[in-house]
Write a structure and sequence with these properties.
Elements lengths: L16 E3 H13 L19 E2 L5 E4 L21 H4 L8 E3 L7 H14 L8 E4 L5 E4 L5 E4 L1 H4 E3 L10 E13 L5 E13 L5 E7 L10 E3 L6 E7 L8 E8 L16 E2 L3 E6 L5 E10 L10 E10 L4 E9 L6 E9 L2 E9 L6 E2 L3 E2 L13 E10 L9 E8 L4 E9 L2 H9 L3 H7 L4 E4 L4 H19 L8 E5 L2 E5 L6 E8 L8 E7 L5 E2 L6 E2 L6 E3 L9 E8 L8 E4 L8 H4 L8 E3 L7 H14 L8 E4 L5 E4 L5 E4 L5 E3 L2 H4 L6
Parallel strand pairs: 4-8, 9-14, 37-41
Antiparallel strand pairs: 1-3, 2-3, 5-6, 6-7, 9-10, 11-13, 12-14, 15-17, 16-17, 17-18, 18-19, 19-25, 20-24, 20-26, 21-25, 22-24, 23-24, 26-27, 28-29, 29-34, 30-31, 30-35, 31-32, 33-34, 35-36, 38-39, 39-40
Pfam family, one: YSIRK_signal
InterPro entries: aRib (IPR044024), YSIRK_signal_dom (IPR005877)
Protein name: YSIRK-type signal peptide-containing protein
Length: about 675
C-alpha cells in the first residue's frame, strides 16, 4: 500500500487577498495555539490593511506581498485525502481448491472472487476484483488505488481422487519379429494382441514375449549370443506401431536344424528343413521333415548335372523319399547310369524321365554288383543303367530319380554317368580316377539330414495338449442372463474355449421365437448378424433392448466351445406387465460445465463438447441412448424405450467472462 508522509510536510503561503472566512480560520488557529503564540491581531499594524465593504457586503482586507507567514509559524496544513488502499485492509477468506495452479479456470475464478467478497462484507462500494490465471487477485477501489492478494493466500491444489471411471476392456496389438543379426533381413514376423481391463483413458500394460522357434521359417535359426530369450515392454494404447515391436536377433543354427553336407559333397546350398505336424487316425502326433538341396542349374559339356534333390522324412513310416532331378549330357542313343548309396536301408529306386516328344527309355538293368571305387563306405547301395533312344526333338532334358530309404541316419550318396555304350558307362561308374569322374559324371554328392529333436518333441507335446483338449467332453459354463425393465443381457462364460453363444428369443411383433448366434472370431472379437442384438465386440456381452423383445416370453441361451461341447441352458422370463420408463429408473449425473461464448446461442462445436461431457459423466447409459443439446445448452437424454430426461443449461454450460475473451490493446 502507498503511505503518505505527514511528518516532513512543509508549506509556505503568500496571501495577497483573503475573505473573512480565511481570516476566521487564522483567528481560530491563533486561539488553538494561543498558549504558545501571541494572537496575530496584536501584531498587525493598524495602518497596514485598508478595510472596505464590498458590494456583496463581505469584509475584505488587502495584504501586501511582504506579509508572508514564516515557516516557524504554526498553520493548519491543507487537508490531503487518504487513499482507500491506505485505510482498508482486505481479509483473506477460505481458500478455493483448484485443479491446476498455473491455469485457473473461469469457474474457479468466480469462486475465488466470491470467497473474497464473503470475507470482506465491508468492501468499499464500486470496488472490483480481478482474478489472474495463477490465482492471485487485484482489488481496485473507486479512487483507482489497489490491493493485491497472493495466490498462496487464496487457492490450493485440489487433491487427486481415486478414479471413479468405469472399467473398460480393450486390446493392444503388437508384432513379434525375428531378424538375422548378420544380414539385417527379417526372417519371420507375427502379429499378436493383449487384452486389457482399465479405467484410464489410455490403456497400458507390461508385456513379456519369449522367443518361440516353433515355426518352419525359424527352423534353422537360434538366438544371437547377445540376445535375451525374453523381451519386456510397456505397451500403450494409441502408441506408434514401431513402439509395439518385439524384435529378436537370430543367427543360423546349422548344427541343429539345417541339412549337413558331409566332406566331399558338391551341392552349393541347402534350405532349412520345414517340420510339419500331423495326426494319425488314432490321434497320435506325427511329423514330416522336408527340404531342398540345390545343385547346378545349367548343363556342362560332357557332364551330367544334378539340378536339385528334394527330400521328405515321415516319422510314421520312418522313411525318407529323395527326388533327384538330373540333367543328362547325352546325344543320340545313349546310356544313363547311376549309383545310389546310404547307411539307411534302400527300399526302392525308380527312374522317371519326361517321355513323349523328347524320347523314351529302355527298362533299367541292375548293375549293383560292380566294384565301384572311390565311394563312401555306406551299408546299402543300388546301381542301374538305362538306355535312351534318340527321337526327333532330342532326348529328355531331365530325368527324375526317386529313391526311398528307411531309418536313420538319413544319409544319401549319388553318382551318375552317361555314355554311348554300356561298357563305357559301367567303367566310368566304377572308376576312381578323378579325371574320369569329372569328365563323365558328377562330383561325389553326399548329404545327411539330422532330425531336429527339440523342435519335434515340442510339436508332439503341444499336439498331446491339443488332443487332450479336443477329447475333453466337459461342457462350458452356461451364459448369464439378466432382465431389467424388459431388456435382457446375455453374458458369455469366461471359459477361454467358448466359441459361440446361441440365444433364443421372441422379437417384438413376431409369434415364433428365433435363435441367433453370437460368434467369437479368431481375432477374439464377437459378432452377430442379428440387428436386434447389441454386442460388445471385446467381451461378447449381448443386450436385447426392451423394444426388440416381446413381453411375457422366455429367453434361453447356451454356450458352445471349440469342439462342440454344449453348456447347460440358461433362461430368463421377460415380464408381461407395463414397463417402468427408463427415465424413472435412471438419474443422469451432471456433467462438467462447458465454457461457452454465448449461453443463449451455442455453436455446433460447443454443443458437441456438451454432449461429450454428458456421455463422459454417464458411461452407464443404456445402449442406443441419444443425447441432444439445445441452443441454450439444455440437454435432452432419450433412452431406448423413448422415455426422456432433461438436464438444464445451468448444469451444463458456463459463460466465458468478457475479460477472458477480450485482450485490451495498449494505448
Amino acid at each position: 500500500m502507498r503511505k503518505f508522509n505527514w511528518y516532513n510536510l512543509k508549506q509556505r503561503f503568500s496571501l495577497r487577498k483573503y475573505h473573512f472566512g480565511v481570516a476566521s480560520i487564522l483567528l481560530g488557529t491563533a486561539i488553538i495555539f494561543g498558549s504558545a503564540t501571541t494572537a496575530q491581531a496584536t501584531e498587525l499594524s493598524p495602518t497596514t490593511p485598508t478595510n472596505a465593504v464590498a458590494l456583496d457586503g463581505s469584509l475584505q482586507a488587502d495584504v501586501t506581498s511582504s506579509d508572508v507567514i514564516p515557516d516557524s509559524t504554526p498553520v493548519l496544513r491543507e487537508a490531503v485525502r487518504a487513499l482507500v488502499s491506505d485505510t482498508f485492509s482486505p481479509k483473506v477468506g477460505e481458500k478455493v481448491a483448484v485443479k491446476d495452479l498455473a491455469n485457473i479456470s473461469s469457474e474457479e475464478k468466480v469462486a475465488i472472487e466470491q470467497a473474497i467478497r464473503l470475507a470482506n462484507p465491508d468492501l468499499p462500494d464500486k470496488s472490483t476484483i480481478l482474478v489472474a490465471n495463477d490465482g492471485s487477485a487485484t482489488l481496485t477501489y473507486e479512487d483507482s488505488s489497489t490491493d493485491t492478494l497472493s495466490a498462496s493466500e487464496l487457492v490450493y491444489q485440489e487433491p487427486v481422487e481415486a478414479s471413479s471411471k468405469p472399467i473398460r476392456q480393450t486390446g493392444i496389438t503388437y508384432k513379434v519379429t525375428y531378424t538375422d543379426a548378420e544380414s539385417g533381413k527379417q526372417i519371420f514376423s507375427q502379429n499378436k494382441s493383449e487384452a486389457i481391463e482399465t479405467t484410464e483413458d489410455i490403456a497400458s500394460k507390461e508385456v513379456t514375449v519369449t522367443a518361440d522357434f516353433n515355426q518352419p521359417a525359424l527352423a534353422k535359426y537360434k538366438l544371437a549370443d547377445d540376445q535375451e530369450s525374453s523381451i519386456t515392454k510397456e505397451l500403450r494404447e494409441k502408441s506408434s506401431s514401431k513402439e509395439r515391436i518385439f524384435d529378436f536377433k537370430v543367427v543360423e543354427n546349422t548344427e541343429i536344424t539345417s541339412v549337413r553336407l558331409p566332406e566331399g559333397a558338391s551341392f552349393r546350398s541347402v534350405s532349412a528343413p520345414i517340420v510339419t505336424r500331423y495326426d494319425e487316425k488314432d490321434g497320435k502326433a506325427q511329423f514330416t521333415v522336408e527340404g531342398v538341396i540345390d545343385g547346378g542349374d545349367a548343363s556342362e559339356h560332357n557332364n551330367n548335372i544334378i539340378r536339385s534333390i528334394n527330400y521328405s522324412y515321415d516319422s510314421m513310416t520312418n522313411q525318407t523319399t529323395w527326388l533327384v532331378n538330373i540333367i543328362p549330357s547325352v546325344s543320340g542313343d545313349s546310356q544313363l547310369g547311376y549309383v545310389v548309396a546310404s547307411n539307411s536301408r534302400i527300399i526302392s529306386v525308380e527312374n522317371t524321365n519326361e517321355t513323349g516328344k523328347y524320347g523314351k527309355k529302355s527298362d533299367p538293368v541292375d548293375i549293383s554288383g560292380l566294384p565301384f571305387g572311390g565311394m563312401p563306405n555306406y551299408t546299402y547301395k543300388k546301381a542301374e543303367r538305362i538306355g535312351y533312344t534318340h527321337i526327333t526333338g532330342g532326348i529328355p532334358d531331365s530325368s527324375v530319380l526317386k529313391v526311398v530309404t528307411e531309418g536313420e541316419p538319413n544319409t544319401f550318396y549319388i553318382r551318375t554317368s552317361t555314355a554311348l555304350v554300356p561298357l563305357t558307362l559301367e567303367n566310368n561308374l566304377k572308376s576312381e580316377d578323378p579325371k574320369v569322374v569329372k569328365t563323365r559324371y558328377d562330383e561325389t554328392s553326399r548329404v545327411q539330414i539330422p532330425i531336429p529333436k527339440e523342435q519335434i518333441d515340442k510339436l508332439i507335446e503341444d499336439t498331446k495338449k491339443e488332443i487332450e483338449k479336443e477329447n475333453d467332453k466337459t461342457p462350458p459354463a452356461p451364459p448369464t442372463l439378466t432382465e431389467q425393465n424388459g431388456s435382457v443381457t446375455v453374458t458369455p462364460p469366461k471359459d477361454e474355449d467358448t466359441k459361440t453363444v446361441e440365444i433364443t428369443y421372441t422379437p417384438e411383433g413376431q409369434q415364433p421365437p428365433i435363435t441367433s448366434t453370437v460368434t467369437k472370431g479368431d481375432n477374439g472379437q464377437w459378432t452377430t448378424p442379428d440387428q436386434n442384438l447389441t454386442v460388445d465386440p471385446n467381451t461378447g456381452k449381448v443386450t436385447i433392448p426392451a423394444d426388440k423383445i416381446k413381453d411375457g416370453t422366455v429367453v434361453t441361451a447356451v454356450a458352445k466351445d471349440k469342439v462342440g461341447n454344449v453348456s447347460p441352458e440358461a433362461t430368463v422370463t421377460v415380464p408381461d406387465k407395463p414397463k417402468t420408463p427408463q427415465a424413472d429408473l435412471i438419474t443422469p449425473k451432471d456433467p462438467e460445465k462447458t465454457p461457452v461464448v454465448d449461453k443463449t446461442n451455442l455453436t455446433e462445436e460447443e454443443k458437441g463438447k456438451v454432449s461429450e461431457a454428458v456421455k463422459k459423466a454417464n458411461p452407464d447409459f443404456p445402449a442406443s441412448t441419444t443425447v441432444e443439446v439445445g441452443n441454450d445448452g439444455t440437454v435432452t437424454v432419450t433412452y431406448p424405450d423413448k422415455s426422456k430426461d432433461t438436464i438444464t443449461s445451468d448444469k451444463t454450460v458456463t459463460q466465458i467472462p468478457m475479460a477472458d475473451r477480450i485482450t485490451p490493446k495498449d494505448p
